[in-house]
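Q: Please design a sequence for this.
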């Protein structure tokens, strides 16, 4: 029983040490987080302070200038407003010029891409047209007629082709004979 009790106490001590170590890790993590947050807040405070100081300096300069303008007999509100409007318009012109340049560059890229695509399409069409012309020269109607004509003109010893429509070209052969002048008028040799 004493041994079991000592083992249980040892396990409790190990557990307690582990729990304390985890607790310390969490506390250290929270302390680091707080330090980082404080440092960030100090940086933001410095930035805001500098911005506020610059704003206050600008306002003080505007108040001094407003007094000088009043002494000179001018309306400070109108002068400041015109100055702000000029700054705003200058910034707008700068943005517009940048936008125009960006748009021009984009249009140039598009035109180059379209020109490349158009030339590629023209090349494809040219190749297709050449292929069609080559095919037509080799296998078209004119080619067929030329081949038939050449064959028929070189054919020897065949009868004339009968053409009931009269549309085919007559190719005389060796068997063909010229008909006599009086053919069909009953004036020939057998008319007696």
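A: Design:
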């Amino acid at each position: 029983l004493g041994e079991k009790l000592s083992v249980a106490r040892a396990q409790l001590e190990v557990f307690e040490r582990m729990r304390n170590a985890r607790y310390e890790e969490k506390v250290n993590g929270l302390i680091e987080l707080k330090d980082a947050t404080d440092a960030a807040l100090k940086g933001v405070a410095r930035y805001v302070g500098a911005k506020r100081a610059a704003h206050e300096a600008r306002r003080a300069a505007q108040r001094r200038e407003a007094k000088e303008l009043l002494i000179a007999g001018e309306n400070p509100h109108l002068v400041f407003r015109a100055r702000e409007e000029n700054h705003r318009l200058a910034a707008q012109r700068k943005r517009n010029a940048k936008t125009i340049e960006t748009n021009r560059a984009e249009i140039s890229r598009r035109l180059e891409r379209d020109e490349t695509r158009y030339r590629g399409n023209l090349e494809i069409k040219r190749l297709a047209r050449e292929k069609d012309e080559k095919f037509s020269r080799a296998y078209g109607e004119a080619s067929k007629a030329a081949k038939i004509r050449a064959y028929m003109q070189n054919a020897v010893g065949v009868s004339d082709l009968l053409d009931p429509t009269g549309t085919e070209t007559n190719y005389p052969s060796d068997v063909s004979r010229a008909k006599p002048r009086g053919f069909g008028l009953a004036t020939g040799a057998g008319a007696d």
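Q: Thanks. Anything notable?
A: The CA atoms of residues 78 and 160 lie 110 Å apart. Helices lie at 2-72, 76-139, 141-154.
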